[in-house]
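Deviation from plan, reported transparently: pyridoxal-5'-phosphate complex.
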Amino acid sequence: MSRKVVLAIPDLGGNEEKYVSDAVRSSWISSTGGYVNRFEKEFSEFTGTQHTASVCNGTVALHLALLALDVRPGDEVLVPSLTYIATANAVRYVGAEPVFVDVDPDTWCISPAQLEKSITRRTKGIIAVDLYGHPADMDAINHIAAVNGLWVVEDAAEAHSATYKGRPAGGLAKIGTFSFYGNKILTCGEGGSLSLNDPSLYLRIKTLRGQGMDPNRRYYFPVTGYNFRLTNVACALLCAQLERKDEIIARRHAVFKRYQEKLQGIAGLGFQPVAEWASPAPWMFCLTVNAHVFGHTRDEMMKYLDDNGVETRPFFIPLHTLPPFRQESAMRKEFLPETEKIAASGLNLPTHSMLTEEDIDYVCELIRNYSVTR
Ligand SMILES: Cc1ncc(COP(=O)(O)O)c(C=O)c1O
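Because the crystal trials were delayed, the predicted structure below was used instead.
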């Protein structure tokens, strides 16, 4: 066995190097420069929103969104438990408490049907996560929020290019947030952004991002702000990524299609569900394992693939079961059966635009041969 199939590789084959060199040669390497402005303009077009604020990562994007929305100690924010920990960590950064809500088995995203049951007098808002590239049911979530006087943040870190009823993910709530970490569809290594339409909220975000400086009076700081800016060098990478977004996304869709074709019909294996109103982003291919039918558990499958040179990763461990959150969650008697079921059964297969058909066929053959029923 010599083949190695890694989980994620950034696709930097276009103008990335050229634009980074250009940024370096220009000496604009901090957070001012042409690439920052260009990226923010082009990303607004991509998400169909008026404004984009680039920031240093996706966690900071969430943190800044909550600061701008004035979330405070004692507030509660409804979040899914089936997500990356950054979603809930950001709530803690502002002293508020994440309250975990179960996911809808048909989308794996926060369940509108469950949301209302968790609203209390302290609830201020909802963070809906477009999990594994699949958009959350944003119309239903926005409606519940409007009726209850809450705001909604859409965490679209994993959903670059997804659409919901034809509208781009990340542009569907009061604020949308993105990550450009190295394993994301569009990447600059470490980076993030906020997407929004509200001009006064945008001004507040820009002020807080830049140490709180008054945009009309240099070195006058009316509020305590942060240094959350993204560099011109990172934005140079993102500009090059955006030039090739259609190609990068199409290649990843082709990877998804081949996995689906080759893994079709294996008893005990399942794919990520897709709602009829959703066009998910091809972020990481998801597979669920029903151990009773397939004959091996998810963890056994991961070990077997690893032994054969294929890197995978398990689905997110439900956040309400992790040490930073489990005590509070238990006190609230949270019961999230769908989250726990999906999390325990799922794994991500290698997904990136450099995967060859032979790589995919190799992974699928291994899985098919491992199945007890074949
Ligand atoms: C759903 C979700 N939210 C937030 C983040 C945080 O992004 P970053 O790693 O850029 O801080 C991630 C990313 O990796 C994510 O998957």
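The chain has a mean pLDDT of 97. We consider this an acceptable substitute for the interim report.
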